[in-house]
Design goal:
alpha/beta; GroEL; 2 domains; 4-stranded antiparallel sheet; 42% helix
Length: 304
């Protein structure tokens, strides 16, 4: 399928995703609830709509691939033991002091993950690095962990999951937790992705999974889909649509030209001037020049 001929195909996909993500109050439709995920491979014909929000990354805890009704904590900082503000030197004189030093770090990580698990968290999204010792305790307490390096994607996840991004390490309060119906690891075209499904009255998530052979092709389709989703948003607010780029105004001029035999010459010229004045307010300059040219020709024909 070539890109110019793919309009009908992707129009149906956009409509399917938008209708699926449409909340009960249609006027509260948000374009953030319809996202695109670009996965290389296959053909554009293999693009499809998936219910939920997709993060195109693998989980950091391989033994946990699915959590039902997760309580999600989002951290915008690295999940690691806090480092000192200044550099220092630790003098270790014997093996016992070395063991105690490592044990204190392990105890700190253990207490941190345990406090998060005690708060009811069973899924975690981290916006930075995760230390190995923290990963060990995350596996131990069965907390599914996803690492998200993009701040924009992290913000989008917080909005979709109704969560608050925390900038401190510690147990979150219930108001800061996000919710979903399902968090699951899936594989699409050899690409591991994490799917968050959330079907509530105020938030329904949809993702259009784009397949294609090159990044440029996927980027072009993504831009076209963004335009289509915004058109759906405007359609929900007000279903009255007219042609753009000055086409509506030009048709009005020709319509009034057909009625020119009803009016006398002086009244016809006055009406034409009034119409041009009204159209001048919201019309781009290039469209106005074309309109003036066409109206001049019309006036000349009317005078003859």
């Amino acid at each position: 399928m070539t890109l110019p001929s793919a309009g009908d195909f992707f129009s149906r996909k956009i409509a399917e995703a938008c209708i699926q993500a449409l909340p009960d109050k249609s006027n509260s439709f948000d374009v953030e609830y319809v996202r695109t995920a670009k996965i290389l491979g296959a053909s554009t014909n293999d693009s499809f709509v998936l219910k939920g929000l997709i993060v195109t990354r693998n989980v950091e805890t391989p033994s946990i691939s699915e959590v039902k009704n997760p309580k999600i904590a989002v951290y915008g900082c690295p999940l690691d033991t806090q480092a000192a503000e200044t550099k220092g030197t630790v003098l270790i004189k014997n093996a016992e002091e070395l063991l105690n030093y490592n044990k204190s770090e392990e105890d700190h990580a253990h207490n941190l993950i345990k406090s998060i698990a005690d708060a009811g968290v069973n899924c975690m999204i981290v916006g930075g690095t995760i230390s190995d010792i923290c990963l060990h305790y995350l596996e131990r307490y069965r907390i599914m962990t996803i690492r998200c390096t993009s701040k924009f994607e992290l913000k989008r996840l917080c909005k979709a999951l109704q969560a608050t991004a925390l900038v401190r390490l510690g147990a979150p309060v219930p108001e800061e937790l996000g919710t979903a119906d399902l968090a699951q690891l899936r594989e699409i075209g050899s690409q591991k992705v994490v799917v968050f499904e959330r079907d509530s009255a105020d938030c329904k998530l949809s993702t259009i999974v784009l397949r294609g052979s090159t990044h440029n092709l996927l980027d072009d389709i993504e831009r076209a889909i963004d335009d289509g989703v915004n058109a759906f948003k405007n359609l929900v607010k007000d279903p009255r649509f007219v042609a753009g780029a000055g086409a509506t105004e030009i048709v009005k001029i020709f319509y009034f030209e057909k009625l020119n035999h009803i009016f006398s010459n002086w009244l016809r010229n006055s009406i034409t001037s009034l119409i041009l004045l009204l159209l001048w307010i919201n019309m781009p300059s290039d469209n106005m020049l074309r309109l003036l040219k066409s109206s001049q020709e019309s006036l000349l024909r009317m005078q003859v």
